[in-house]
Every structure is written in structure tokens, then in C-alpha cells.
Amino acid sequence: MRSASGRPSPLKVKRDIYERSRQNMLDTQLIPRGISRPEVLHAMLTVPRHLFVDEALWSQAYTDHALPIGEKQTISQPYMVAFMTEALGLKGDERVLEIGTGSGYQAAVLSMIAHRVYSVERIGTIAARARKLLDGFMCSNVIIRVSDGTLGWPDEAPFDAVIVTAGSPTVPEALIAQLKPGGRLVIPVGQEEDQKLLRITKREDGGADTEVLGGCKFVKLIGKQGWQEARERASL
Ligand code: SAH
Question: How many domains are there within the chain?
Fold first, then answer.
């Protein structure tokens, strides 16, 4: 699943009929709610979100909602993608770890802003579909791996920023351990039905400061340091 890596990706995208929908998404959902960093807005304007969902859902791709992507997983609402991206405070030279590749949309947005994106997905079929899509945009600075992301990506650590796009009962220790001093971890933590979005900043002395950024609702982060798989099966 490895791909060549480079600078922030210019993303090769063709013109499409949803350009106005994307501009409208910025004007009605993102800018009025405070998304302001030009790099983030530019990425949201550029990445063709509709291609990350099933064709039957293209007409809903730019609405203010999460959408299903198969295997009971979802692509987050555009505002949440933009908000979490902005919360990472990226400047362009960072190595970012994403847990929960899903459709690959968040990774594509990050790829336009960060130097390199390491994205971990636990479901192989989902990861393969995301890889194919990203290859179609020549998005070569995203590297995808299939494994349990609650353990991070030890071989590539430390990271400047970590983003978790699934809800966890607690903060996985490994993700803080794999942050550089000054690095930021943005993660939804809480119950199955609702979580708080936390930003945890690692201090130079190894400690960490936590801010609550707001409420949110994500699918479950399943793994050794997240929700247990057995419990997930039992609840099906
Ligand atoms: N960022 C995605 C949305 C992710 S949905 C996007 O832009 O579309 C959450 C994803 O997290 C799902 O694909 C789910 O399979 C994955 N996931 C859940 N637990 C995981 C774990 N422990 N490691 C890696 N991926 C996980």
C-alpha cells in the first residue's frame, strides 16, 4: 500500500460539475462557522468529495452531513473534516499520522497541506479502495497501511500531528508516545453515541495539555487501545 512520497500534494483533479457545490459548501458551512485558514479552505475547495462516496450519493456529497462509505463506516461531515484539519495547526512541512483512512477523503485534504500523511485503516477492502482513489489524483504523499491504528505506526514515529477519525473510549497511550514535543493529537473521546473532540499537545517535558474543542459523533475506533472487537461483535 506504499506510495512514493513528496511535498504537499498538488492533487491532479479534473474540472467537474461540482465546483459550485464546493464553493457553496465553503460559503454556507465552513466560513460562517469559523474555518479561516487559507490552506484548509483551498484544500476543501479542491478535493472532489463526491468521488469518495458511491455514485448514488454524489448529489449529497457537499451537504452538511456524514455519509455512508460501506462496512458500516462513514465519511465525516465536511465541516468536521475542515475543523479537525485546522485544529492540527499545520504549516506544510509536517509528517501527519491519520488513524481511520475510511474513504481517503480526510487523507486527501491533509495531503494538500502536510508534507507526508501516514494513514492507518483496519479494514483491508476500505484501505484498498482509498489507495486506488488517491492514486487516481496522483496523491503520492499519502502512505496507507492496514493495521490496528490504536497502536500508532511505531516505525515511522515520531509525528508532528496525529488525527483520529473514529471515536475512542480513552486516549490511546501509543498515539501520545508517538508525538514529537510540541506535536498535536486531535481525537474524539467518549461514549459510543457521543464524544468530545480533544486536542492534546505534547509538552517539551513529555507531559501533555488537553483542550476540549467541542462535541462530536464518530464511528467506533476498534482495537487494542480503543473499543474491543469482541464487544463490537456481541453488539451486532
Ligand atoms: N477519515 C475517513 C473517515 C473514517 S470513518 C474519511 O475521510 O472518509 C472511521 C474509519 O476508522 C473506518 O474506516 C474504520 O474502519 C476505521 N477504524 C476503526 N478502528 C480502527 C483502528 N483501530 N485502526 C485503524 N482504523 C480504524
Answer: 1
